[in-house]
């Protein structure tokens, strides 16, 4: 936030997404920012300073990126605010090399100095970064290129092994300790023969495709022009701040839109009014009723670069 923003806008507006989007100034990699204090959210923490987040790794990655930019150091203080019930014992083996630790814990009844002995991460551990996270965070790609130019090893998880990565994604989880049963060609043939109407011979795409969720278009809103870097958790925060609470969110952020499903028609009307002036990252979004649009998005054919228009029959 700039001093101008703090002087002319309520201080309570500055930390929330609306305030950040409207009144903050983006910081670039070369701005040489120095941060004295980091406040992070936590699902659970221990008195040793160990922290558990949502499990997606974005909080740890944000710290690692700040280290790489030179904005923070191992001496930068990290504070977390939690309820008393979120302070628990966390075993040492659950904490990995990329996990951040906290120096202070603030609860409604206590201020806890952890004196944590475990060092904070000293930068981005590229071997733990997946292709999906790299795609979701544009600045991470810039940092990777910068470190590659500096001669550092920036090979990401499963990079160069697409076959193995795809195989891992396709595996179903098995209980620990139970060996995975290998399906032989003989077993696969038996399964195909046992299915009626030869359903086992469906194409790979059809077999993996989940059936669409049953929806009522009249109770669904389409929200478009979403920024490509927007995460679904941030999008839901914007909805809550606008006092819009859909029954279900269908996230299509990689394509720049999302569907909001409601239980009652009145809730749809209210949501349309509340979201008309919504801005995310300085960009006004588009809100429309999804009647007809959902079918359009679902059935729109993929255009090929070398496709040619069909010639009309002479007769």
Oligomeric state: single chain
Strand content: 5-15%
What's the total helix number?
A: 11
Give the low-pLDDT segments: 1-6, 159-178, 190-212, 299-307
Q: How would you state the average pLDDT, rounded?
A: 75
Largest sheet: 4 strands, mixed
Number of strands: 12
Overall radius of gyration: 25 Å
How far apart are the first and last residues' alpha carbons, in Å? Answer: 68 Å
Order of helices and strands: HHEEEHEEEHHHHHEHEEHEEEH
Taken from the alpha-carbon principal axes, the silhouette is globular
The spatial strand order of the largest sheet comes to: 1-4-5-6
Provide the helix percentage: 25-40%
Question: What structural class should be given to the helix and strand makeup?
Answer: alpha+beta
Explain how this protein is built:
By secondary structure, the chain is an alpha+beta fold. It contains eleven helices and twelve strands. The strands form four sheets. It has a four-stranded mixed β-sheet with strand order 1-4-5-6, with no helix packed on it. It has a four-stranded antiparallel β-sheet with strand order 8-9-7-12, with helices on one face. The protein is globular, with a radius of gyration of 25 Å.
């Amino acid at each position: 936030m700039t001093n101008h923003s703090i002087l002319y806008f309520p201080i309570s507006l500055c930390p929330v997404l609306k305030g950040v989007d409207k009144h903050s100034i983006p910081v670039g990699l070369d701005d040489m920012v120095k941060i004295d204090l980091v406040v992070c959210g936590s699902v659970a923490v221990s008195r040793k300073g160990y922290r558990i987040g949502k499990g997606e790794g974005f909080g740890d990655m944000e710290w690692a990126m700040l280290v790489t930019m030179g904005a923070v150091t191992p001496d930068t203080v990290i504070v977390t605010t939690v309820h008393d019930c979120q302070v628990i014992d966390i075993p040492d083996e659950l904490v990995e090399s990329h996990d951040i630790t906290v120096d202070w814990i603030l609860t409604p009844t206590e201020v806890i100095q952890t004196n944590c002995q475990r060092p904070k991460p000293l930068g981005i551990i590229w071997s733990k970064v997946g292709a999906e996270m790299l795609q979701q965070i544009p600045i991470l790609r810039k940092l990777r290129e910068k470190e590659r130019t500096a001669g550092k090893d920036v090979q990401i998880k499963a990079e160069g092994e697409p076959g193995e990565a795809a195989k891992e994604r396709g595996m179903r989880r098995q209980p620990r300790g139970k060996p995975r049963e290998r399906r032989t060609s003989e077993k696969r043939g038996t399964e195909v023969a046992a299915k009626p109407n030869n359903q086992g011979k469906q194409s790979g795409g059809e077999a993996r495709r989940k059936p669409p969720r049953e929806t009522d278009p009249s109770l669904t809103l389409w929200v478009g022009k979403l920024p490509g870097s927007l995460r679904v958790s941030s999008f839901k925060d914007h909805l809550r701040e606008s006092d819009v609470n859909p029954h279900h969110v269908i996230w299509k952020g990689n394509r720049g839109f999302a569907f909001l499903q409601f239980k009652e028609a009145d809730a749809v009307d209210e949501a349309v009014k509340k979201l008309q002036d919504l801005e995310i990252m300085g960009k006004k979004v588009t809100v429309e009723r999804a009647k007809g649009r959902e079918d359009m998005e679902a059935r729109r054919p993929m255009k090929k670069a070398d496709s040619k228009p069909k010639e009309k029959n002479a007769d």
